């Protein structure tokens, strides 16, 4: 039995990488997917591809670091499909840098997207799910939310925080409102994330990681495994990493 089919699923950061792969995978499994990211052109193309393959999808261009836009995204989903069964908080930035170089602007970008964006999604979707009496909130974290590596400082801080948020959701919300809270921890994934890193002092770290990176489709399959559960079964923490990654 499939618990994915006909679920209404919102995927943030869906214009590429893990988000795109996840939206496509879930649509193939019969979910109705709503894709969110800032790049409207990319979203439109992905939706057209999903629909061309027989899937059901729509999109809304959304800046996840804006509370109002995230709230509008959830309202848009309910207006179109009548409910939100699953929110996948995937959007994020991974900007490694050394403390000595004090990339404060980049720290703020990661905090706004990786942390505040997750909180905005939770705040927007919780009332809908409580009214439904069920739902899933899946936060895409990182192995950096379990162990800190060189140049990972602020990025790891945002992922540790998201992990704490997810655990708190389980204790307060899952047990009382039948809303599953899941933390998925990918390792190094081939999403070209390193192209956004500006600190040249971490180039050796990036090179080592890129040698073992795996495709985002593997993370998509892992997320789908968590989605494909009945309401009385919850996957708490799940890791998906390259076999050769040390962390």
UniProtKB/TrEMBL annotation:
Output the PROSITE patterns linked to this UniProt entry: ADH_SHORT
What InterPro entries would the database entry show? KR_dom, NAD(P)-bd_dom_sf, Sc_DH/Rdtase_CS, SDR_fam
Which controlled-vocabulary keywords does the entry list?
Oxidoreductase
Similarity comment = Belongs to the short-chain dehydrogenases/reductases (SDR) family.
Note whether DNA damage occurs among the keywords: no
Please verify whether the record's keywords include Oxidoreductase: yes
Organism lineage reads as: Bacteria, Bacillati, Bacillota, Bacilli, Bacillales
- Cleavable signal peptide: none
List, alphabetically, the SUPFAM superfamilies matched. Answer: NAD(P)-binding Rossmann-fold domains (SSF51735)
Report domain Ketoreductase positions: 7-185
> Can you name this protein?
SDR family oxidoreductase
Q: Where are its TM segments located? A: none
